Each structure stands twice: as structure tokens, then as C-alpha cells.
Amino acid sequence: QVQLVEFGGGLVQAGVSLTLSCVASGGDAFTELSVGWFRQAPGQEREFVASASWSGLTTKYADSVKGRFAISRDNAKNTFYLSMNSLKQEDTGVYYCGASTHRYIASHYDTDYSYWGQGTQVTVSS
Predict the structure, then answer these.
(1) Can you tell me the mean pLDDT for 93-106?
(2) DSSP structure string for the chain
(3) Which among 10, 28, 49, 107 could bridge 112 via Cys, Cβ 3.0 to 4.6 Å?
(4) CA geometry: angle at 83 spanning 79 and 88, to 5°?
């Protein structure tokens, strides 16, 4: 069983940058997993943000974050990241990291992910 722990959420002003981290432990080797980030705003369903294949060479982004966010991973550290630039108020929400056993696919479907972090709050103020 893979455990995921997130770090890096907080309250920031619009326009600044913030990086989230997700550390994996236990279960499958980290390189057997693709990874992703999803978020959930109050009163809304969880939505896809970004994903990366096991190597990090294949990535996918939601249109709303393309060009502002970047997903990356450090397989030696069992850690992946979401670098968020030019944050907007609409980026506010609880951010969840996920890991999928479909290692070659950078999926945008949350049903493809077997493991989830506990979530970290990101609040962007005006």
C-alpha cells in the first residue's frame, strides 16, 4: 500500500508562486507509478490539474493551468511536485496528490488513481 503525504499549501496573494510536494512511501516502487494532482474548490467536484508518467517525460495539464503550473518528479526522492506560478483566486481549493499503477499514462481521470494524499489547502487572496 502506497502512502502519499503532501506539503506546501498555504495562504498566498494572487500573482505569486507556490510549490506543492508529495512524498510517496511503502507499496509499489515509485517508478512503477504515474502521478497526478487534482483539486477541489468549495461546493465543486474534484478536478484534474496535472499528471506525469513514471519517467516524468509525459505530462498533461488542465487548460486552466497550462502555462502557469508545472508537474515534476524526483524518482530518487520518491517525491513529485506541483509548481504553481501566477496564482489566481480561482486556483483556491484543496489540492490532492494521487498515484496510479498505470505507469506509462499521465491520466486526467481520478478513477485511474489508486492512492491519494490527505489534501492540502491552497488559498489565493486578491
Answers:
(1) 96
(2) --EEEEE--EEEETT--EEEEEEEESSS-GGG-EEEEEEE-TTS--EEEEEE-TTSSSEEE-TTTTTTEEEEEEGGGTEEEEEE-S--GGG-EEEEEEEES-TT-----GGG--EE---EEEEEE-
(3) 107
(4) 145
**Residue 89 to residue 107: CA distance in whole angstroms:** 25
Instruction: Judge contact between 96 and 39, C-beta under 8 A.
Output: yes
pLDDT in tens, 38-54: 999 999 999 999 999 99
Kindly list the distances between the CA atom of residue 102 and the CA atoms of 18, 63, 105, 108, 115, in Å, as whole numbers in the listed order: 28, 22, 6, 12, 12
